[in-house]
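Dig into these lines:

——
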Amino acid sequence: MHSPSPLEGGSVTLDNCAREPIHIPGSVQPHGALIALDLRGRVTHASANVADLLGFVPVFGQALAATDLDGQQDVHDLIRQVLDEAPQEQMAPLSQEAELNGRSFDVVVHVSGDLVICEFELRDGDANEVASFAQKAYRSLDVLKRQRTELRLLESAVQAVRAMTGFDRVMAYRFRHDDSGDVVAESVREDLDPYVGRRYPASDIPAQARRLYTINTLRLIADIGYIPVPLLADTAHDEPLDLSHSVLRSVSPVHIEYLSNMGVGASMSVSIVVAGKLWGMIACHHMSPRRVPYSIRMAADVMAQLLASSVQTINAQARAAEVAHAAWLRSEITTPVAQGEDPLTVLQGHAAPLRAALGADALVLSLDGKVRTHGIEGEADLAWAHALPTWLGTQAMPVVHVQEGEHLPRDDDGTPPPYCGVLALRYDTLQQGWVVALRREQIETIRWGGKPDKEIAHGPLGPRLTPRGSFDEWRETVRGTAVPWNDTQLEIASQLLDGLSRANTDRVMELDRLRSQLWAVLGHDLRNPLQSLSIAANVLDQGVQAGRMSSVIKNSAGRMQRLLRDVLDISRLQNGLGLAMNVEDLDLVALVLQLIEETTVGYPDMQVTHQLPPSLTVPADAGRVSQLISNLLSNGRHHGDGVVHVVLREDDGHAVLEISNRALPIPEDEVPHLFNPFKRQSLGKAGNRTGMGLGLYIAAQIAQSHQGSIAYRYRADEGMVMFDVRMPLKHPEP
């Protein structure tokens, strides 16, 4: 009986075109014959051309006779070997050459479920030609091994396969994330239109074909115009014969029409499978029918496997380098955060390498209402970026991943967002801490190999989706999307989120502990001046030592005022309010001289030297700058030998104030945290046992509020600890 096909009694319609079961077509190509046996060696299926090609008629339900296959014992032995081993393991196909019925064949035997399929493929070419191809294959493999990039691998592969097989055109496809494929390398006959650089839609290779390309990596259509040979079956085997691994499997009529529309007479494809996925393909076209010996095809298949292995190695090496660098960067970010440093400051300090690791065009960093950007210019873009964390706060997930601009917030006037790709990582839920990688719109002109849309047509197979009739280049501009993040970048982002979230949790817990300790120190520090005030009041009540008590009261009140001012400042800064500022033109020279005089009067045992210009004016808040300088002078008094040096000069549009004192260098492990609040190193320090460790932090915030900076350095040749404050001489542009 005729072996059934799932499409019998119907057609490849619009409903089933994409679901056509191409692995069970019920027919084979006519350049060979097929016989299927059960595991006892009995014939279950045979192609209708066995008698014509092999010269005998197999009997269903019976084993092959010794005289069948011209009585050639080596062919019978090959089949018996597969029959004997089939039940024990899944084995690769076995093959050999044979002369049968006066013609040359490649005999290929493989296991398919509980059947053994024997295929007899007509063989073209003499032994010398095959040997020549084998030598070319060997040389080509050596060339491939020396390539170090994907493109060079594919360029070498297409040249080698064309030399081995003689096809008119050999192309290397590289599939994208959406399964569309780009022709990235090509070797083509000079008079043919090149296809390199064109893209072919994912619909050109339906899902079921993609699966077959993965499990059976080589397929040959020797003659596009062939007439399929039906498979006949024993009455006891009415299930379609699975030809997934067959070399003679008949192909979909829609695919035949597709190739015919391209003007192709013969086709061969070799899959490049990386990590179990169809990564790419070597596609071969000939303008007329062409048969390629099985041994040469296997050499091409081995080449594709080497190609896949090389691609996997190249990708693995690149991925390992990316992941290792990202691990180093993650440590550089999370370690200081876990030790109490401000996450925004740390992230901003590493913005450039972080942006590179995430493959981003720009970054948005936010925490507790404060927003920092990197790589964003223009008022409109900056305004959109500053509003983005508010929109992200409405999202439930800790990772927000968007690749299309239509899903992102727009301006009030409906202006499309300046970025289309967003990969946002929320590391602090309560304070809305976000690391946001942005990608701009990818405005891409795609060179399609023909218009990718399929059309409905009525033909011999009924109404269906027809393949493209023209493969002339068809261009399409794609907008509104960003290049998607790849798996490695997403893994790096996930690990960064995990590490940063943990570090931030540690930071918050440590800050809470240090705050508790701070309030204890503050309570202790306030008791001393309050006690002094109480004693002074009692003495005044007795009417004695009025002048001395007046000085005690002033000093105690001033100390309490400074303590409370620092606490109020830290409260404003920690709550994101910033420092209250009243900026006016300020002569720094006059202010420095005034503060030096006040300090030396208050502490007669302290000596302050100075080197100042006649005048130097900056836009600043006089009270805040006084607070900054006083903190640094006090720092020098507490930690030095009693002598403080002050230098004020102009440098590159900035006023530079240097305050130094002779002392041992600050320990290296403390330097990164000098300007952090709530430092455990500052509490109870020998040089200033009542200090709370807020002075340098507030000084740094004052400098930053004036668009300036403060930095520590040590001059070993003089044994000097130095703090440099830089402030712009002009008002910053709005």
